[in-house]
Amino acid sequence: MRAILCMGIDTKGEMASQVVSGKGGDADAIFLIAEDASRDQAQIVLIPRNTMTEIEVFDYFGEPLGTETQQLTLAYAFGDGREESCELTAEALSKLLFGLKIDGYFAVNMDSIPYFNDAVGGVPVTVDDEMVANQYPEDFKMGETVNLTGDLTEKYVRFRDVDEEGSASIRLHRQKGYLKAFIQKAKESQAADKTTITRLVDGIQKLAITNMAKDQYMDMGLALLNSPDAMEDGDFIELSGKIYQGKFEEFYPDMDELKEIVINLFYKEKA
After folding, report:
1. CA of residue 9 relative to chain centroid, distance
2. What domain range includes position 196?
3. What contacts 238, CB < 8 A, 6 or more positions away?
4. For 139-155, how does the pLDDT look when each residue is reduced to its tens digit (9 = 90+)?
5. Residue 32 falls within a domain, yes or no?
6. pLDDT digits over 117-136, tens only?
7. pTM of the model
8. Domain with 87 in it: what CATH number?
9. Engineered SS bond to 140: which of 33, 127, 210, 237, CB 3.0-4.6 Å?
10. Is residue 271 in a domain?
11. How many of the other CB atoms lie within 10 Å of CB of 67?
12. String of b and e for 89-100 (b: at least 16 CB within 10 Å)?
């Protein structure tokens, strides 16, 4: 079982290297894929961006200041906005997950979302989040099914009301629904057109920051798309914990539950 870290970064445009510490962008979406390529199976752990954990911090000039307990999302910001940021986030996540080895990572920014979404022909979602419906009433109405294409996709997966308590967790639940719908649509697209996986892989090559070779993320994609079974809610694992709303939202996971998730996904042999 391999652990693949996937990140969505809150920047737009080219993911250029940053020389000022803290300007690399935040990892707004953090997912850990548990991939069993030999069985074409995968499960996804959704990690709240505001999970409080030990991260490396740096001064304005990039000099290390040691470690502090801060939101996981900030680990990316302290790096260069590229490989260093990914590695800092992977290291912080590994510590949070009791030393679990992170086998690979890739990160894309918000400009990339429409590409991947449209590569599978758009993604239908049923709107069940009042926060996004209230913000974009012309685009999203509660209970209606919308086929997301182009920039509409970014609106749906990115928006949160920072003044609303627990807004990051509300958005993460919305992103879970989107991921489930995206993977199902990608599976349908791949069944009808075997070049779908090629388009997705080409997108990773062009748009993502990754330490994975092409065959590795091809295997990851095939594990998600070739499984004969649809991914159910149980394949998308949300963490339990407590939210504290101070100046910035803080999420404290239930560490006993988290340890059980890690053991069950990565250390127990599957029957």
Report:
1. 9
2. 2-266
3. 46, 172, 173, 176
4. 999 999 999 999 999 99
5. yes
6. 999 999 999 999 999 999 99
7. 0.92
8. 3.40.630.190
9. 127
10. no
11. 13
12. bbebbebbbeeb
Q: Which residue has the tokens 């074409």?
A: 40
Spatial CA neighbour of 51 closest among 259, 240, 263: 240
What pLDDT shows up at residue 103?
Answer: 96
Q: Cα 135–6–76 angle (5° rounding)?
A: 80
pLDDT for the residue numbered 26 = 92
For 51, the token pair is: 């999970």
Per the domain annotation, does 157 fall within a domain? yes
Q: Which token pair is 168?
A: 């990051």
Collect all residues with Cβ–Cβ distance below 8 Å to 241 and sequence separation of at least 6.
Answer: 48, 51, 251, 252, 253, 254
Is residue 147 in a domain? yes
**Which residues are within 8 A (CB) of 191 and not within 5 positions of it... i.e. 6 or more apart?**
none
The model's pLDDT over 45-77, given as tens digits with 9 standing for 90+, comes to 999 999 999 999 988 888 889 999 999 999 999
Mean pLDDT over residues 77-98, rounded?
A: 95
pLDDT at 42: 85
Contact yes or no for 190/267 (Cβ under 8 A): no
Total structural domains in the chain? 1
